[in-house]
Write a structure and sequence with these properties.
It is elongated and about 85 Å long. The strands form 2 sheets. A 6-stranded parallel beta sheet has the order 2-1-3-4-5-11, with helices on both faces. A 6-stranded mixed beta sheet has the order 7-6-8-9-10-12, sandwiched between helices. Helix 11 crosses helix 12. It has 13 helices and 12 strands. Helix 6 links the parallel strand 1 and strand 2. The chain has 363 residues and is of the alpha/beta class.
């Protein structure tokens, strides 16, 4: 069988030489085929970037498209293919540095697959996360990446979906959907070990107060587990006076947590903050209280958001590989899109690697 891309018809004069007067953008695929002297299927293969088209043939078709100002009807092409070329990204709060950075990286990774991204804000509620899952197909997304905060193991039965979804988060691992996790426990343990190596012995933790045993796995409870493991390995007993619970992971909450420690007269020489955003508030409160960082107290955060490098002092942080998280999530989603949907292969799990980026706050 002869490939269509090798069949090139006789050279046909282009529109300008035929005296035709094509309006800008009104040329058809048939006009391009005539102008390039190839079949319409060859033009289609070039438009869809099929790899088996000869370079010379591709160049002729592209040249004809440029001369005729041919524009691909993307909507019609996607409708025929059953694809929109758009995926959804659900995040709890777009104005938090971590999620803004995550969204930017996923948009960049999606562009490599020629996919557009629509961002939804779930508000960190279970109802909104379930709604994002349920309505993603109705919103004509080809697939969805959802960063979860409130979904839990008891919601697993609601995740038996027929369209591709990748979960980012900690509550639902080993579930029915592809899942990309952060190194929460291991990263937190490494963070506290970093403080211990620098002489800290009274290390405070600012987190939600959740524990894996009582509340199940989430970002905060897993990071608290890593904190306690590091202390135990160093032979240091957990001191509840050094654990400050906050409601939200905001700068204000981090600031107020340090103020409470100082007001209560609790002695501490290190602080592990559950996120960099919390650590930013903690640094401000320590400065206001006249407590020098890092001489009197060393501070470490988690997430390595870009702003951390520009604080005074700059913030040491657990740095997950954000590029890995975005790219592996897109790879998982695209594999589903190309492989026939949500049930074409078993669900996959991945965890981002991490490093400790040492900056001024612990030196």
């Amino acid at each position: 069988m002869i490939e269509d891309t090798d069949i090139e018809g006789p050279e046909v004069p282009d529109a300008s030489r035929r005296g035709a007067s094509l309006r800008s953008g009104s040329a058809t695929i048939q006009d391009v085929a005539r102008a390039a002297g190839v079949s319409t299927s060859t033009v289609s293969n070039v438009i869809n970037d099929q790899p088996h088209v000869k370079d010379a043939t591709r160049a002729k078709v592209v040249s004809a498209m440029e001369r005729l100002d041919y524009r691909v009807n993307v909507a019609a092409r996607n409708l025929r293919a059953g694809r929109t070329g758009t995926i959804g990204l659900g995040v709890p709060e777009i104005d938090r540095p971590y999620f803004g950075n995550l969204a930017a990286r996923i948009i960049s990774a999606a562009a490599k697959h020629r996919l557009n991204v629509v961002i939804e804000q779930t508000g960190a509620t279970r109802e909104s996360e379930l709604k994002a899952l349920a309505l993603s197909r109705n919103r004509f997304y080809d697939g969805l990446i959802l960063s979860t905060v409130r979904l839990a193991r008891e919601d697993v039965d609601k995740l038996a979906l027929e369209h591709p979804v990748v979960i980012l988060g900690e509550q639902i691992s080993n579930g029915p959907l592809d899942h990309v996790a952060l190194p929460n426990a291991a990263g937190a343990q490494a963070a506290v070990e970093h403080l211990l190596e620098r002489g800290c012995r009274r290390i405070a933790i600012i987190d939600s107060g959740h524990t894996v045993e009582d509340d199940g796995p989430d970002v905060s409870s897993l990071r608290r587990s890593g904190y306690r493991d590091a202390l135990a390995s160093a032979g240091i007993a957990f001191d509840p006076d050094l654990a400050v619970s906050i409601q939200e992971f905001t700068m204000q909450d981090g600031h107020d947590a340090i103020r409470r420690l100082v007001h209560r007269g609790i002695e501490f020489d290190g602080v592990f903050c559950v996120t960099d955003t919390v650590a930013m508030g903690a640094l401000r409160a320590l400065a206001t209280a006249g407590i020098h960082v890092p001489d009197a107290v060393k501070v470490i955060g988690f997430d390595d958001v870009p702003e951390s490098a520009f604080l005074v002092p700059s913030l040491t942080s657990v740095a997950p590989d954000h590029a890995f998280t975005a790219e592996i999530a897109l790879d998982m989603l695209v594999a589903r899109l190309r492989g026939g949907g949500a049930t074409a292969m078993p669900p996959r799990e991945a965890t981002s690697p991490f490093t400790i980026l040492t900056r001024e706050s612990t030196r």
